[in-house]
Amino acid sequence: MMRKVVFIDVVHDVLREKLEEHQYTCVDATGFNADFIRQEIKNAFGIVIRSRFTLDESFLKHAEDLKFIARSGSGTENVDLIYCKHKGIHVFSSPEGNRNAVAEHALGFVLSLLNNIQRSHEEIKRGFWNRKTNTGKELYACTVGIIGCGNNGMAFAQKMRDLGASVLVYDKYKTIEEPGIIQVSLDGMYGEVDILSFHVPQNEETIGMGDYMFFSRFNKPLIVLNICRGKVIETRGLVQAMKEKKVLKAALDVIEYETKSFERFFENALPEDFVFLKSNPNVILTPHIAGWTTQSYYELSNVLAQKIIKVFNRS
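Request: output the structure for the sequence above.
Response:
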């Protein structure tokens, strides 16, 4: 039986190369529209995707022979997992491939905000040399709280621990046993945390989790990081918390308004809350690149190849 794999999104060539070594037939459909792809997947054994389309039941029902979906990246919110489970379709993702990239990006956020690197850089460009107001704080004096301790959350937790910070983690579904990293309930974070970082998937439980009421529960003014999914933090609530100094600084690699074609977002009038963040010297924004490095681009596909071959080429 021909094992045809349809590539809907561009990924590193290592995935195609390794699949072809195991007698898969790889089809490049990255330049075609949804109607063409629906026809192409009718006899597909596998689909490779990033975020170009939502693979819901109405799309997947055309793939009658489908055995797997390989999603390059950590999230699977654009895949109908219930339908796949019902049909016995394996869904692979590759959070192991960019865990270090995400953790290093988060580390960069923390160091920049603690030491006012971006803010003082912008001040100097405007002709201001302010040393006292840009006094920094060292990591060993901080408690870092991490919500979600999967691949990315754990990688960040380990880096924070190794640099001397106290590290608390909350994960509803995992037991964490790692030296120097303490698992707590959410209540256990409220009294201690200086830096709060989100590393959870986007689902019904986590959408809007970081709202005004949530930030208000913390005893200390916070530095907030979001490096998972934009909708996990409610922008309006974050902005209100910043205005009331419940959150002092924030670094966001993802934002609530993000879409598949986010570049066009700037062609329209920007939401007032986003304008506040964009113009705030204590906020860093990056365009969803935390897990996007030369090394992770390779590893995301390499991990997928290993998982697919392990399941379907056991002999």
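The first strand starts at residue 3 and ends at 7.
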